[in-house]
User: What shape does this take?
Amino acid sequence: SLPAAAHSVFFLPQQAYIIAGSLREQLSYPWSAGGQQRVCSDDELARVLGCVGLEHIPRMLESESDERHLNVYDRWVSAQTWARVLSPGERQRMSVGRVLFWRPAFAILDECTSSLDVEGEAAVYRAMQDAGITVVSVGHRAELRRFHRRRLHLLADGSHYMTHHHTPEAFNILVAGRQGSGKSTFLQTLCDSLPSLSIQWLSEGDKQLFDISADPTVLAEEVLDPFCVFDAVSGTRAIRRCGMLVRDHGHSHKLLVELIDTPGIDSQDTSQAQRDIEVVAWEIERRLHVSLDDEVRAARRKTKGRGHVHAVVYMVPAPVCASAQTDSACHRMDAAVDLLSDIDVLAIRRLAQYASVLVAVGKADTLEQADRRLLRDRT
Assistant: This one.
């Protein structure tokens, strides 16, 4: 059964409070919680010390006390000796050990792991998670985010907002499709609809058209037309990438969005279509390999790379009349159907090997039943 502390809240400051007393008293501080004393075995104390990486402390105390006849956990140790024996990081580990000893319902940690390295910090957080303790952290390390489900943002004007652990800081979308499917128009429309947008970079193929990191004093609007970022008239001949910083209407959250336009896939020649599909597939695969390398380098530099493609939008051309092949004068939109060709299926299956693919059809309710089955069975 859990002690009364299971219904309490523990607060751990950045500078751990170390008392004069035995190791048992050090770990069980405060000695009473909810008016109860908690008695535990030496094995449990050893387990707690092991969870926070302090299993070597009993051996260190063997020569630090004159009470050799007592159990090492019960030998009295002065505050000065504790200060000499424990490093700043070990003091913080001892403080976390008290949380594991008492197992409270909540623990508020105010930079209480700042003296630990990343691996040590991860170990103590995992130990608290395994003990079922709800942790509220005040800290500046980005590594702490992975141990929390929610993030509270406090703003200078006194307001606040909360984001969940799955709220991304960056996201990118690659759009593919056959020639004439409206990819560039879709991307430009999406670009125009994003609020508080500022372009960060724009590239076409291997050519960098704009990069704010190269010269932060030059605004994208001075060299680019924001309403013509994607060429919806002549079509895309090389992969075009546009990175933009988007803020919500309250400017309380920002998101780095990258939109990627790709050359249209040939609709007639299957061999050429396969080559076009491979160009798009290589862009996804290349970024996947680069992102893995970036993650390793970013972990060392504590920075972030641009990452792999998160999602692919595959566009099917706008619906045409079912009788268009036999009656070119037919304009009955109630007879319109979306034509999903074998080339579309080939492209979707190929691109889906690397990323999640969303199929965007011009008029979803008119997709022929056979094509619906084709998508379900073959992709």
The longest strand covers residues 170-177.
